[in-house]
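Lab notebook, bench 4. The sequencing result for the construct came back, and we need a structural model before the next group meeting so we can plan mutations. Quick request posted to the team channel:

Model the 3D structure of this chain.
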Amino acid sequence: MSNRKIQVAAYSDTWPGIFAQERLALYCALDTVIIRLDHIGSTSVPQLMAKPIIDMLMEVSSLVYLDQLQDKFKALGYSAMGEFGMTGRRFYTKGGDQRSHHIHAFVSGDDNLFRHRVFRDYLQAHPVIMQQYGQLKQHQALACKHDSDLYQQGKNSFIQEHQAKAMAWALITSD
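Done. Here's the predicted structure in token form:
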């Protein structure tokens, strides 16, 4: 069990601005490796309740090169967490136990890039599902108190079900 407090908050209009500010700092420091940097996760979905942590999806040209830039991440306040349970990912956190930012980095072409973007877009396009997800998150936060693993486990089946639906939705709605 982690020392992190699980807190789910109402959507904040400040989250897109916080992302934009961090995005600029990351591009300035890591512009030679970043291809694209997106705001993902619950803070990227207007009106969705969320842990107030800005999740970012970083598409990079090379994980090997990214791994050589750890000093730049550290200078921006990030801790490198390695793959953190997902092969082919580099995960970074900022803010210690009370995290403020997460970076999920994948090499260009990795299927996880599409999966993350589509899930965000799906929640934005389906307000009823978005509200159900917010209610689940709030319930899990209250039930799990400070156990982030238990909090995540309680959301897994919903996320897996709706990621599959999001992938199908993306295929139907794409040009």
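The radius of gyration is 16 Å.
Will bring this to the meeting.
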